[in-house]
Amino acid sequence: MFAGPALKLFGKDYVFIFLGALFFLSFILVALLPTTTDKGLWFKESLAFAHRTFFNPKNAFGKLDFTFLKSEFMKMIVDIKAGISYMKKNKTVAQASLILGATQVSDATLLVLAPGFSASVLHINLTDTSFVIMGPMVLGVALGAILVGQIGLHFNRRRGALRSYQIIAASIMLLGFTKRIPLSRIESRIPGFANSFFGVDFLAIAVLLIFILGFFSSFVEVPANATIQEKTDDNMRGRVYGVLSWFVTLTSALPVILSAFLADLLGVEKMALVIGISMLVSSSYIAKVAKEW
């Protein structure tokens, strides 16, 4: 949401320094989190690995030492296998993860199309994208999460999540029709006093649809996350979310790459229709499979 203002404030060169500082701050905050292992030992091993691999001149053109990285990677593989095995036995967790993952894949694909949608459909400056697109979406997510929290006890999670998923799909499809038409094209056909009132400018409609998209995303993600947390054992929760992140990363790679290519070939509006239709089709499959939560 603040990407546009940050770009305007720091410029296209210094904004990367600002982003790097934020990542470094994130690293510090994560390092301060409590852990079950010896934090001091882990921190020393991480620094030693970074020094051996990236800061040792002898390794600049020689063989890099990836022993530590390999051991961490193997631990990750073991955790993923354990998470998958657990989800196979716990269908409620697996089904909630399925609809949550499908929503996150769709979100990732939409984020790729956001700049093109802003430029070719809404005809707004790219630096304003964060306010026009991300702003309404964040507001919708926040209000939706508050409402879900209020009605949580009287809310059928499965039915509500599926209906919300379908509403998100319909909103994305309608976004494909919100091509912004400048008022100057039709002002000669409309009485002067009515120009400002009847302006055929669908920017407001697009903003409303984006708000609806964010609002109903909460009705998918909050119940699904709540189900996963409630139905997962404490010692397996991290592994289940690790599997979910792994699943989203793998399954979103191809749609993200193809959506960027097809958007250039077919246009952003048609891609919005394709994504919306794909979500509607997948919702029928999810409805058949996810029946136990």
Automatic annotation (TrEMBL):
Record GO terms (molecular function): transmembrane transporter activity
Topology of the protein relative to the lipid bilayer: Multi-pass membrane protein
Presence of keyword Transmembrane helix: yes
Alphabetical keyword list: Cell membrane, Membrane, Transmembrane, Transmembrane helix
Recorded GO CC terms: plasma membrane
Gene3D superfamilies: MFS general substrate transporter like domains
Cellular localisation: Cell membrane
Pfam families xref list: MFS_1 (PF07690)
Occurrences of domain Major facilitator superfamily (MFS) profile (ranges): 202-293
TM helices/strands, residue ranges: 14-34, 96-117, 129-148, 160-177, 197-220, 240-262, 268-287
PROSITE patterns: MFS
Superkingdom of source: Bacteria
InterPro entries on file: MFS, MFS_dom, MFS_trans_sf
Protein name stated in the entry: Major facilitator superfamily (MFS) profile domain-containing protein
